[in-house]
Structures are given as C-alpha cells and as structure tokens.
Amino acid sequence: MRVMFNGFILLLVCSLACCVSDTIPPTPAPVTERILLDQQWRFFKYADASQADALIYDVRPPLLDDEDGKAADAEPDAKIVLSARPDQQILKPWTLPGANPFIADPTARHQRPAGPSPGRSFPFVQSSFDDSQWQQVRLPHDWAINGPFLTGDDAAVGGGMGRLPSPGVAWYRRQLEFSAADADRQLYLEVEGAMSYAMVWLNGQLVGGWPYGYASWRLDLTPYVRFDGPNQLAIRLDNPPASSRWYPGGGLYRPVWLVKTPKLSFSQWGQTITATPQQVRNGRADSNIQLQTRLSNQSASPQQAELRVHIYALEQGQPGSEVLAHLPLTKTQVPAGGEVTLSSAVLLKQAKLWGPRPSQQPHLYLAVSEIWQNNQIVDLQQQRFGIRDLQFDPTDGLKVNGEKIYLQGANQHHDLGALGAAFHPAAARRQLLLLREMGVNTIRLAHNPPAPALLDLTDELGFLVINEIFDAWQRKKTPLDFHLIFDDWSEADLRALIRRDRHHPSVIAWSVGNEVGEQYTGEAGAVVARRLHKIAKSEDPSRPTAAAFNYAKPDMPISAVMDLVSLNYQGEGIRNAPAYQHLAGIRTSPQYPAFRRAFPHKLLLSSENAAAVSSRGEYLFPLAAGNSAPVADGAGGDPHSQQVSSYEIYTAPFGSSADKVLASLAAHPEVAGGFVWSGWDYLGEPTPYYGARSSYFGAIDLAGFKKDRFYLYQAAWRPDLPMVHILPHWNWPDRLGQITPVHVFTSGDAAELFINGNSQGLKQKKPGEYRLRWDQVRYEPGRLKVVAYKNDQVWAEQQNATTGAPCRLALQTEQPEPAALLFVTIRVEDCAGQLVPTAKLPFQIDLAGATDAELLATDNGDPTDFTPFSASARNTFNGLGLAIIRPAAGSAVTHITVSSPGLIPAQLTWPASPAKEQHLD
Ligand code: GAL
C-alpha cells in the first residue's frame, strides 16, 4: 500500500486502528516498517562492458545481427540456442529461486545451489572495499539519461534505443543499519524496478536477483544480516545492448525499500479485494466486498492469528475519521514457515463508486488490516481499492458502472522525457493531465510493467488502464531482449505483476504481449499464448486478458486465445490507402469486420493505431494529396534537418493518419475504442530518422508541448469543449505569394478563415472528416483568423499572426503551488508578447535563492537535439524550451532566471509569487 511510505502515515493509521479497537490497549509490537533507500548510494559503471567482472547472470548470444531502425512491424526471429563457456561464472541458479513464490507447480520451483555463493571474494561486495571514489547518487537514478548522446551511424547505441548509454554493467553500494530489535523480524529488500539483470549481495553473500528490468521484486535478506555492525549491500546490474526497441534507461530507476516485518505478517502482495456493486444509482451502489488475505509465518513455530479489517473512505488521499465497515473477525493458525489465506466479506451500503473521468468520479477506499495475537496488533497493512463494475459488452463496448465508456486511449512508454526512466510521480502526473486535456480517458502501458506509483496516479485521476507486460515472448525482436529469459521467467513475471497491481481499480485488463513473433508460428504460438492466458486468469479471474496483434488474422489459432480482441493497426487496415501502395511489408485490408464475425462474443478494441509522425512547429511544402501518407524524404520528411512536417498527415509505413483512424473507428461503432500510438513522444524509436534521439509519434512532444495533432484529437474527443486550432504558424518571409495550406481542427461543425480580414470561405465538416482545409491559400504576412461555428452559432475563435523579431523571454509554470517538481516553460516572444514560433535561440538557466534547489533537466521537444538533458543551456525549439527543477525543500524560495544573448531575460520566483508569467522589462 503506497500511502504507507513514511512514519507519519503509519502512525496515523495506528491511531485509527486503535480508535476502532477501543477495548484493547495499543500494541507495543513493531509492525511492518518500510524505509525508503533513496540516499547514500555509491555508483560505479564500467567504461567498457567487455572489461566488466565475470559475475554474469547467463551467457548471451554474440551480437551479430543488430539492426537499428528495423521496421516496428517486422517479423520477429527465432531464438538462438547457446551453450555456456566454461570460464564464465553463471549466477542464474542462485537467481531463479527468487521466482519460486510465483511458480504454481511445486515441481517446477528452483533449489538454491548448495555451498558457498559466487562472487563472495569479489571486492565490490566486501564492506572493506573503499567506494569513496564512486559517484554519490540519489534514487531514482537513471545512469544513462545525462548522456552524452551517441551520434552517427556507427554509434554503440543507435536511435532505436535513444542514442544514450543505457547498456553496460554497473554496481550500486550502500550500507544498511539494523538494530538488535530487528533480530526478531524478517528483513527484505524491495526493488520497484532495476534495469536490468539485478543481482544482490549482502555482506559478501549472494542473496539473489531478478532479470526483467521493469519488474518489481523483493529478496529476503534475513539469513545474511549482521546485527553487530554495518551491513554492506551491493547490487550489480547488467543492461545488455540491443535489448530493446526503445530507450530502457539503466540503474535503480524506481524506489528501493528496506522492509522489516514481524515474523507473523502479511504476505507480499497478499491481499485480493473484489468488490461487486449491485444496482448502481447516481454513482453509488450497495457493494459486496470480498477479501482474501494471505498471512505468512516465518517463525519456527505455528502461530495463532486473528485478522481484523476495517474499511475507510479516502478523501483527497486521506482516510476519513469514521470506519465505514468492520469485516468479521477471522482466526487461523499459520504453520511454521507457511502461509494461510483468510477470506472475509462485508456489504458496504451505498458505496461511492470508482469511475473514469470526466463523467464519473474516482472514489477510493482503504482497507486497514490488522493481525492480532494475544490481544495485540502484531502487523498492520493498508490497501487502497476502488469499487466499480466493468462489463465488456461485445456489441456495446466497455461499460463502467453501467455507463458506456468509449475508449479514447493513448499508448504511453515508460520514460518521462528528459528525466529518462527515473520515475518521478510529478512528471507522470503532468503526462496524464496533458493527456486528459486532449480527451484521453484510457492508457495502454506499452509494453512493460509500470512504476507502481503510476497506477496510484491513474486510480486517483480516474484513468482506465490496460496493463501490459511483454513486447516479446520466445521469439526475438532485438537480439538480446526478453526472449532470452522468457522460458525461465515469464510465469513469475506475470504472476508478480498481477499480484502487485490487481487492487488498482484503474486497471481494466491484462495484456500479456504486443505484436509477438508467435503470431507467425501457428499452433505453436497459440500454445504459448494459452499458457499466459491461463496464468493471468488463475491470478485474476475478474479481468479479461488481451494480446495485441498486428498480423494474426481471425482464422489463426492465436487469435482465439485471449478474452479481448486487441488489434494493432489492422483494424483500419495496414498499407491499404493509395499513398502506401508502393511499400513492402504487412498489407492488410480493414480487419474489424472479419474479427467481429469470427468473435461475435468478444469485445473488440484498437490497441494501437495511427503511428503518425511530426515535429512540433515544423511545416514542409508541398503537402501530399489525401489525408494519410507514409513519410519519406521530401514527402513530409526533411533528411537534412531530420524533422517531419506537422501538417499531421504523415505516418510510419504501416500507420494511418489520425483522420483515417478516427474515420474508421466512427464507421465501426462495434469497436470499443482505440489507443493512439502515441500520446507523448518518447526516447528512442525515432521513425523515420534513426539519426535522431527520440520519437516523432507523440501528439505531445518529449518536453510536454502540444503538437498540432493534440488539437485534432481534442476536437474529436471533447466535442463539448469550444475550441478551434489553426496551423501552420504565419511567419513565412520566404513564401510570399506561395501556396501555403491552412488547416483547422475544431470541435465545432464549420469554420470560416480570414487572412487580414478577407474571408477565405466557410467550410463545413462532412461526416468522417476531422479537419477543415484551405489548401490554396497564398501566403501574405499579417493575421490568420478562424471563427468556428456549431449549430450556426459562433463556437470558438483563434488567430495566428505574423510576429515581430525575438525580443524577450517569458516564463510560465504549470505548478503555482508547492510541488515535488517544477516544470518551467521558456518562451521566446516578440516585443508585443507573441510567441515567435520559429525561434531556435540559445537560453541559459540560473537558479538562485534556495541553495538546495536543483535543475534536473532541460529540453525543447526537438527529436534531433543532442544537448545533454542535464545541460543548463540549450536552444529553444520553435519558440519553446523547458526546465525541470526540483525545488528547495520546505518553503524556501527559488529564483529562476533565464537569459538569451540579445533578448530581455525573464525571472520567476517560486513559490513566493505564483504569478503565471514574469518579465524583467
Ligand atoms: C508498433 C509497436 C509499437 C511501436 C509502434 C510504432 O508496431 O507495437 O511498439 O513500435 O509500432 O513504431
């Protein structure tokens, strides 16, 4: 339970527990304690992984066929079978036992090898080793995000993985403190994510590890702990090259915890809460709450235990003062070294339901569970949950609490732009809020388990989520990806993910794979799919399974396996529009009808669509005919600047423009909705220019600035929001008299365009159209103005004017109030305060005032910018720049000054004057 992250909350809940158990004295026994290990780490990465120590997880195939920029929809290859070299120390046998709690078949579990563990004499695992020369780091830490970027054709890491040095072998060390009182406790290391192939030593002993870099896992440190002095923790990570189709990051990039539990305690992720609302009315329903709670006894003797559970409503994340329900007390005896699951249930009258915004409210509850022994609380756990009814109706789509919710979805990668893989909830919140502004109500987590705190955010903000685990099964997409460990780890990874995340009301489905190679292997592939489906259902019968298919057709065995039909691109058709006819690769006619006919009882969704590409604020001429075209040099793409036109009709070779996708979805109301590829730009996969660092796919750029496409979706997905958006900008001194098409996105139904007051005509949106276009406009400087209408009434207006020269900087922040991170937008303006939309000018950030405020990163959303994200100086891209600042602790004031040669600088004082915008003129 995530709110239990510090002593304050823990005490609060203890006092709640005491209130509700007024006849019994408060307990002196120490309950589970979670200590965040974010400071005091030392870090070392080998300059050259080939010179690293030999403490490897397993042998890996040689890298013979790494191809950066392979088409995303290329057929995955078969695995290479290897045998180990005798000179290597293979640590896999010591790592595999960590999977045992997540392997259902007892005979398939692993035995730790007997005898001394490997690596015990290696210097880095010794407490006597002097690591004072190692870098001091604070978690979350992504070792690669500050670069330098690796440029050029022969770079060790190409565009696919973001040209950042994520591969390599590295170590983290820190000491842990234990007191004599801890001798009676079970002591765990919990890691929410370590990229990747983690192996952990404590006091020179190999404890275990976990290879999948996106998994959350824990290790039992107890047998290796010393109570007579400092304990030395050492973690080795090994991030293979060519292991991902996108930027994976590297390091301890999510929180790491030391967890101390009593011997009799709650099992890891051991509580399932199933809530069944009946007869929903006005967002409330009588709801039957069923709990299954697993207790673990790590002591040497059987233990009697009583379980008491109390339910609170959460308001603004805080439990209310009143207990809403006490579950009936349950008792058991937990055998020594064993576990027992207790079931209990209660009816919650007129419970407030969790539902997606904007039409519903995401109400949450808290189950506070206590283990009692001899009239004392011996352990305590909090579990947040929500109550909602999900119906996956094959013809009517998804219904949440009886209301049809059309999936207005976005695919999101894990990285947080300039912060990389390092998980900062404030940055994830910003991503979600901008998506919500665009009209998104559902997120697909492409294609790996998220940071746990991301799902806390989707719960709180009311997003629906498809939680996806793998991009590859046994067949490989990149030479050293997950396929290497699929056979050994897929069951454990899948069970662990579902146990970790099943209490999140935002999660609506488990996707077990994305465009896997097993689509191409007939019945053999279906066998793998069935195994994963069965595992998911055995862990969580309440949610449907999915696997996203871009190739499998309705008559292939794999297509029938999952609960949902989850189509990537083939719903609207792949390479099927006229502009795509010359291309090789998968070519598919629109598949929604065929899948509908084959699977009339399954809900159908478009898990990936579009794959449109653009660079914010770049416009290239001439514009292709039609409304969807594959990008190519000179056709939407500029090979010199490596930028892609923002007219928003260009796509990856297998993609379709937003216009084509939305029209196709509108023509197939039987489809429950779709997920655009992608909501935000992300690091890596810079189709079509693999010389760049980050993708062009987002409707929002890497820095969080809206591309034109943002407004196309907003117009379609938020029909009640009066809005209209014009493109392009109107600064074209070299295009006097030349044809410069003007396109408009509006939630209205018609619009009239004016240039310097002269009407260019009123245009009406026809069914299946998502933009209004004036393609014969000849450029003249001045003022473009559009007036949008809905039902013959003025609905919205917007202007794009030719601006003056850059004159000054201006700063804006989205966080007027104290926040964990401050995102500051830097604007280049003319002297009249208009954004200069073409400005690519240097800026420099200086922080003063609070001494501990820290500039974490800068960016501008330009996919080709190789200035390190940690730099305090870079160029704006088309008028905008971004600074991400970790403000000083407490209420100390931070002064942010941004300057640029020849321009009037700007200053922002935060949080003392939360004014939106300040200039120094
Ligand atoms: C899909 C794939 C995504 C991404 C996208 C755009 O085929 O599932 O992960 O690669 O194409 O290239």
- Number of distinct beta strands: 53
Coarse structural class: mainly beta
Strand order, main sheet: write it out.
25-26-27-28-29-30-31-37
Low-pLDDT sequence parts = 1-28, 914-921
User: Helicity range of the residues?
Assistant: 10-25%
Q: Tell me the fraction of residues in β-strands, as a range.
A: 25-35%
Which whole number gives the mean pLDDT?
93
- Bound compounds, please? beta-D-galactopyranose
What is the molecular shape?
Answer: globular
SS field, number of helical segments: 9
How does this model look, in words?
By secondary structure, the protein is mainly β. It contains 9 helices and 53 strands. The chain has an 8-stranded parallel beta barrel, surrounded by 5 helices. A 6-stranded antiparallel beta sheet has the order 5-2-6-11-8-9, with no helix packed on it. Strand 27, helix 5 and strand 28 (507-514) form a beta-alpha-beta unit. The longest helix has 18 residues, at 522-539. The protein is globular, with a radius of gyration of 28 Å. Residues 1-28 and 914-921 have low confidence and may be disordered. The site of beta-D-galactopyranose has 16 residues, from loops. Beta-D-galactopyranose binds at residues 72-73, 245, 446-447, 514-515, 550, 568, 608, 611, 652, 677, 685, 687, 697.
Write a brief structural summary:
This protein is mainly beta and 921 residues long.
Question: Layout of helices and strands, plus pairs?
Answer:
Blueprint: H1 7-20, E1 33-36, E2 41-45, E3 55-56, E4 89-90, H2 92-95, E5 135-137, E6 168-176, E7 185-191, E8 198-202, E9 205-210, E10 217-220, E11 231-239, E12 256-262, E13 264-281, E14 284-297, E15 303-315, E16 318-319, E17 325-326, E18 330-334, E19 339-352, E20 364-373, E21 376-385, E22 390-393, E23 397-400, E24 403-404, E25 407-412, H3 425-438, E26 442-445, H4 452-461, E27 464-468, H5 486-501, E28 507-514, H6 522-539, E29 545-549, E30 565-568, H7 592-598, E31 604-610, E32 629-630, E33 632-633, E34 636-638, E35 643-644, E36 650-651, H8 658-667, E37 671-677, H9 708-717, E38 724-727, E39 742-746, E40 750-755, E41 758-764, E42 772-774, E43 783-790, E44 793-801, E45 808-813, E46 822-829, E47 842-849, E48 854-859, E49 873-875, E50 880-886, E51 894-899, E52 906-910, E53 917-918
Parallel strand pairs: 3-4, 25-26, 25-37, 26-27, 27-28, 28-29, 29-30, 30-31, 31-37, 32-36, 33-34
Antiparallel strand pairs: 1-12, 2-5, 2-6, 6-11, 7-10, 7-12, 8-9, 8-11, 13-14, 14-19, 15-16, 15-17, 15-18, 15-20, 20-21, 22-23, 23-24, 34-35, 38-39, 39-42, 40-41, 40-43, 43-44, 45-46, 45-53, 46-50, 47-49, 47-51, 48-50, 51-52
Helix pairs in contact: 3-4, 5-6
Bound molecules: beta-D-galactopyranose.
